[in-house]
Amino acid sequence: MHPRCLLSITALPQADAEQLLLNAGRCVSWIQRGGQLKSSSLRGTSTLLLFAENSTRTRVSFELAGKLLGSDTINISSKGSSIEKGESLRDTAMTLAAMHFSCVVMRHEAADSAEHFARWYPGPVLNAGAGRGEHPTQALLDAFTLQRHGLLRPGAKLAIVGDLTHSRVARSNLALLARFGVEVTLVGPPNLTPSAWRVGAGLGPPAPGASEKAGQDPPLRWTPDLDSILPELDAVMLLRVQHERMAGGEMSTQDEYSKLYGMNRRRLGMLRSDALIMHPGPVNRGVEAGEDVFSDPRCVINEQVESGLALRAALLAWALERELDF
Ligand code: NCD
Predict the structure, then answer these.
(1) What is the pLDDT of residue 217?
(2) Which CATH superfamily is domain 9-134+306-319 in?
């Protein structure tokens, strides 16, 4: 496995995470200054984007970041590639290795897909979302967004709200933000919360047959009651309801969900005037967030997209061991 793989957030050394956030700061000023200015930081490299699951923000930001820094980027999706014909990830990795891409960015529905692929691919592999497993670049861009607002610090209070069971965003964020001392509270309905998280928080019985391991450090906080904690939050991170990952029966109705967990006018009134509202996108409008959210000055959903472009530019340079030339 190449040492500059980013497969999970826990495997990323803290010094590297901090350097990435610093470089994302340089990238965001550079992007804001010059828009589409080109850099030659990654000249002579090639980046393969292998997306076997849908994506807008993640794929496009990686591609644009690569292009702005001078890397040749090539896209493949499962549709139209041999993955659709049943080629295994191992064979795909070995095929792509023969083309000597400098780096592979990949998204796939299996939680262990990036680890598996990286065993067979000799270059850096960046996990751009692996099933219900991890989404480390989302966690980094969310941390960067919080940092831009002075909230990546011990004692900052953040709630991650919604469909926790199916969320790779929640898993990666929980691990990364804890390292910076951010106090994360998980908020979601019991039937959309992994039993280990409820048990770890000392609340709620384990679901029958649950096999997840408890025991996180620092202690987990979980509550099904969003309204009870809203007024004390510095930031609220809404999660998309992942209909495509549900077996059925997890959700009563969308109306019920949005009544309990949706950000609406009433809840906007309960949130502090300087709190942030985040969502990784895409948003199910009217479910996780009502129309009022998008015009609210506390909403940073589009700023997260800008953070994503900057962070992924910094990450490609890290993976390819190149200095940024601006
Ligand atoms: C997330 C993803 O795909 O995991 N979105 C993203 O990367 N911007 C969240 C989601 O789809 O719910």
Answers:
(1) 60
(2) Aspartate/ornithine carbamoyltransferase (3.40.50.1370)
